[in-house]
């Protein structure tokens, strides 16, 4: 594997290999006083974030550092990007400067694919850390890792993804990966927040949350972005919260073993009630923790030589 | 006296045995002339010179991507004898000074008749009618007005433009795109764009404007031309409107006859165009509509863009693609090879109909004695591979790169003068 651009096209064996590596890395770090593995010593990893992000950027940075890679963060402000440099030139510059891996977050769908195209004749790897409304593959991988921890295998498990599927890269990556791993996915959203052609996706679609909850092994809530609230996708945040928010009453409709996931940042009281976010069924902080291990695993699979085992 | 020209062994409209055709003083003449310059046809198809209602020549403003000179070369090499230069230049062609400048530069270059299109509204802003009458009465003699690139979306402005144009014997060419339905739109709203996370450009945004404009045109009994039809639904609306006697004509681009939104998956913006590439069923419907006359003609929407505006992320890229030199090959591939059109049909959609829509009296004429010699000679058996760098346009990026296309322009003749011969501009 040279790049990780999407979970669309990632096969079951590749996905399970990454998740298993993440598990092994987690075990390897457990109880260590110094959380540092030498695996990627001498490798240079550059994060390029063209959008604001806390958890993803920090998670990648920690992942790289715990693997002993040299991690450099570039953001669009305070770099030559703010002087009008093109994405292509920035990518070629970072590659020429010695990047073994470029981790990119960009508002344009397909930006990571374009980057991989421009770096085709080099050895530099590209990791998609979120491109527009397209994909966020490491988020889906860390969600899968969290669900495996809680539920064991994902085969035959039922996962509901609730909220703004239309604009969500998290939803797209999860639909591909969860179905690849054998789970059955239900998308729950008002029709205005579902993509055209969703009926051809390998999912079930529902506009009503209550009737879906009893049969789910997990519920993944998507953040409702502020700009959507005024975009006419639904009448008001209050109506959205009433119709689709996971509140305490709905939590009780879920089976006891069911897991509640949220990719963050959460809007408490909007798509998720505070008491639900802090309930034992919520795995939100585990998601963040697993994020580091999954990203370590991704870097390992892209950058480490065959003989180096984690 | 100027030498006459003898086309030897050519088949007008690809019909019958090869004949010899004499051209004298810019007109098709009778008899023969032993002194004439000879072009050996070897049985090639002779058609009236092509007329493109929709060309972006980029001058003034973006001479780094195309000029009237390079665009004229591309047109001549593509078999065109007349092109309509769209108004979205910088400055906008919304006044007599700019349209006269474009017309004059076209004449100076002299490879193809360059007819400027005037803007419908000042600055293409859709707010206030441009001086249509002044442009019509200028030396540029403008008869086609369009805000192409932008939709004349205000229904009242559109109504007034249609009404006003009647007195000028002109036509309003609409870029049909409901702006509220296409905020941030990047690609055809469908399965591919959904999967790829590209904001959708719904078919309804085109169809609703075409329906509205057909109703308006009928109401005020004015002429409407619909630019670059891209959906099945638009073809249906046109069929309905024509059946009830609306004075509406329409064009389809070569790229909408051959490419689909399956091209999106690479995220390569050479495939970005407005309106966007649609689905295979739209492509099939457009071919059918062109064959049965629902869509009147082919227009290229030739739109050169600098490489830095294409070799970037999808959403940052400009929409548009080259068209003048690939149009014939694509029409032959999609319409002739499929049996939907014969060569007479090609003459109709590439020359006669567009000339009629624009009110040109010296183009798209029958191949007959006494008619102006605006002609194109086509080798129907040739095939060639598209190489963007070798096209005459300054911009070289094209979605057809590496594609093998059938048929080649052997010669283009403008009023008896050879403008292109065997793939080269005639000096």
Description:
The complex is a heterodimer of chains A (310) and B (427). With 310 residues, chain A is α/β, with parallel strands linked by helices. Chain A is built from 12 helices and 9 strands. Chain A folds into 2 domains: 140 residues, 3-Layer(aba) Sandwich (Rossmann fold); 150 residues, 3-Layer(aba) Sandwich (Rossmann fold). In chain A, α3 packs across α4. The mean pLDDT of chain A is 94. Chain B is of the alpha/beta class and 427 residues long. Chain B has 2 domains: 85 residues, Urease, subunit C, domain 1; 310 residues, TIM Barrel, CATH 3.20.20. Chain B has 11 helices and 18 strands. In chain B, α1 links the parallel β5 and β6. Chain B is globular. Chain B starts with a strand and ends with a strand. At the A-B interface, α4 of A face α5 of B. Chain B: Pathway: Pyrimidine metabolism; UMP biosynthesis via de novo pathway; (S)-dihydroorotate from bicarbonate: step 3/3. Chain B: This is Dihydroorotase. Chain B: InterPro entries: DHOase, DHOase/Allantoinase_Hydrolase, DHOase_cat, Dihydroorotase_CS, Metal-dep_hydrolase_composite, Metal_Hydrolase.
Layout: helices, strands, pairs:
The complex is a heterodimer of chains A (310) and B (427).
Chain A lengths: L11 H18 L14 E6 L5 H12 L3 E6 L11 H10 L4 E6 L4 H8 L6 E7 L5 H15 L6 E5 L6 H12 L3 E5 L15 E3 L3 H4 L4 E4 L4 H4 L7 H8 L3 H6 L5 E3 L12 H4 L6 H20 L7
Parallel strand pairs in A: 1-2, 1-3, 3-4, 5-6, 5-8, 6-7, 8-9
Chain B lengths: L4 E8 L6 E6 L2 E3 L7 E12 L1 E6 L12 H10 L2 E6 L10 H14 L3 E4 L15 H6 L6 E3 L8 H12 L4 E4 L12 E2 L2 H6 L3 E2 L1 H18 L3 E3 L5 H12 L4 E5 L1 H5 L21 H13 L4 E2 L28 H10 L6 H16 L16 E11 L18 E11 L2 E5 L2 E2 L2
Parallel strand pairs in B: 1-4, 5-6, 6-7, 8-9, 9-12, 10-11, 12-13, 13-14
Antiparallel strand pairs in B: 1-2, 2-3, 4-15, 15-16, 16-17, 17-18
Helix pairs in contact in B: 4-6, 6-7
């Amino acid at each position: 594997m040279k790049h990780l651009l999407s979970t669309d096209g990632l096969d079951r064996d590749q996905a399970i290999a990454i998740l298993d590596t993440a598990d092994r890395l987690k075990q390897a770090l457990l109880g260590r006083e110094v959380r540092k593995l030498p695996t990627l010593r001498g490798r240079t990893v550059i994060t390029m974030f063209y959008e604001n992000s806390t958890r993803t950027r920090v998670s990648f940075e920690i992942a790289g550092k715990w693997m002993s890679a040299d991690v450099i963060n570039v953001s669009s402000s305070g770099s030559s990007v703010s002087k009008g440099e093109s994405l292509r030139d920035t990518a070629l510059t970072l590659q020429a400067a010695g990047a073994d891996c470029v981790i990119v977050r960009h508002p344009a769908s397909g930006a990571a694919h374009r980057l991989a195209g421009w770096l085709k004749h080099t050895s530099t790897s590209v990791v998609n850390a979120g491109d527009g409304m397209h994909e966020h593959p490491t988020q889906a991988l860390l969600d899968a890792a969290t669900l495996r921890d809680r539920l064991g295998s994902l085969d035959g498990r039922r996962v509901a993804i609730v909220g703004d599927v239309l604009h969500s890269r998290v939803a797209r990556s999860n639909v591909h990966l969860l179905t690849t791993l054998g789970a059955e996915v239900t998308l729950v959203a008002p029709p205005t927040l579902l993509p055209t052609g969703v009926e051809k996706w390998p999912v079930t679609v529902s506009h009503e949350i209550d009737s879906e909850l009893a049969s789910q092994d997990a519920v993944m809530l998507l953040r409702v972005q502020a700009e959507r609230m005024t975009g006419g996708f639904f009448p008001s945040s209050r109506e959205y919260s009433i119709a689709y928010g996971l509140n305490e009453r709905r939590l009780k409709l879920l089976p006891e073993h069911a897991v509640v996931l949220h990719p963050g940042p959460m809007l408490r009281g909007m798509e998720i009630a505070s008491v639900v976010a802090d309930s034992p069924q919520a795995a939100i902080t585990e998601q963040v923790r697993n994020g580091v291990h999954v990203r370590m695993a991704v870097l390992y699979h892209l950058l480490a030589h065959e003989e180096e085992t984690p | 006296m100027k030498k006459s020209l003898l086309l030897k062994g050519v088949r007008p409209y690809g019909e019958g045995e090869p004949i010899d055709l004499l051209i004298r003083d810019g007109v098709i003449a009778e008899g023969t002339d032993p002194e004439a310059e000879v072009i050996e046809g070897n049985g090639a198809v002779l058609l009236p010179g092509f007329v493109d209602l929709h060309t972006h020549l980029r001058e003034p403003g973006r001479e780094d991507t195309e000029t009237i000179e390079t665009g004229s070369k591309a047109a001549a090499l593509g078999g065109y004898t007349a092109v309509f230069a769209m108004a979205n230049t910088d400055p906008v062609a919304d006044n007599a000074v700019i349209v006269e400048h474009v017309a004059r530069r076209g004449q100076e270059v002299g490879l193809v008749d360059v007819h400027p299109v005037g803007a419908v509204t000042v600055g293409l802003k859709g707010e206030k009618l441009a001086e249509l009458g002044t442009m019509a009465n200028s030396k540029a003699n403008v008869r086609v007005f369009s805000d192409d690139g932008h939709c004349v979306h205000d229904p009242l402005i559109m109504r007034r433009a249609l009404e006003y144009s009647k007195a000028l014997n002109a036509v309003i060419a609409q870029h049909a795109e409901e702006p509220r339905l296409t905020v941030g739109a990047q690609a055809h709203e469908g399965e591919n764009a959904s999967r790829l996370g590209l904001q959708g450009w719904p078919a309804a945004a085109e169809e609703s404007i075409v329906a509205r404009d057909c109703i308006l045109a009928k109401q005020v009994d004015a002429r409407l031309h619909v630019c670059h039809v891209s959906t099945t639904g638009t073809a249906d609306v046109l069929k309905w409107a024509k059946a009830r006697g609306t004075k509406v004509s329409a064009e389809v681009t070569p790229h909408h006859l051959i490419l689909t939104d399956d091209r999106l998956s690479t995220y390569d913006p050479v495939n970005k165009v407005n309106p966007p590439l649609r689905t295979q069923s739209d492509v099939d419907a457009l071919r059918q509509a062109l064959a049965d006359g629902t869509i009147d003609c082919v227009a290229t929407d030739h739109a050169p863009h600098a490489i830095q505006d294409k070799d970037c992320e999808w959403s940052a890229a400009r929409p548009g693609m080259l068209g003048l030199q690939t149009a014939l090959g694509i029409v032959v591939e999609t319409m002739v090879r499929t049996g939907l059109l014969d060569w007479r049909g090609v003459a109709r959609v590439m020359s006669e109909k567009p000339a009629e829509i624009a009110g040109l009296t010296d183009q798209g004429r029958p191949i007959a004695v006494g008619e102006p010699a605006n002609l194109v000679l086509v080798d129907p058996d040739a095939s060639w591979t598209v190489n963007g760098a070798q096209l005459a346009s300054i911009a070289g990026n094209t979605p057809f790169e590496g594609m093998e296309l059938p048929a080649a322009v052997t010669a283009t003749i403008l009023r008896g003068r050879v403008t292109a011969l065997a793939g080269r501009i005639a000096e």
